[in-house]
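User: For this week's homework, look closely at the record that follows, marking any run of repeated tokens, and judge whether sequence predicts the tokens.
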Amino acid sequence: MFWILAVVAVASGIAVFVVDSMARATFALLASLLAVGGTFLLIDLHYLGLLIVLMMIMEMLVMVVFMIMYMMNPAGLMPMKMVHNRGGAVIISAVVFALLAAGVFLTDWPARKGVPPRDPTRALGLSIMGPKMLVMMVIGVAILATMIATVVLATRRGRYDA
């Protein structure tokens, strides 16, 4: 199952840059990130896996709402050129990839100290959310209010029409 998800993640990640419309690129990105979330679920990181899946679904839905609201073509489905300055982008990408790969191989990585926790998902959740749980709850409500306001403003009748 891991290899299937890996192939889906890479293939749909490549499709993000190959397709010719914003909507198709959005759904390709969603497929790629859902496959990554599925990979996290396979390695028993249930909290992170579900977090990735839920966040990516909501993020892509918000992106689609904004595409429908603000794009001149219908929902970003009309063909359009998605890449500008292709030559420069290829050169910059190759240089950044070479630098990152060199960093991986040339870095003197430290040796592990101690043993991994018995439940890494719980330990990660406590380290991320521990003292900041109230902040995360408030941010969650703010994001929900933003999504609701976006949908209300996207309707045809507008904000003040009956």
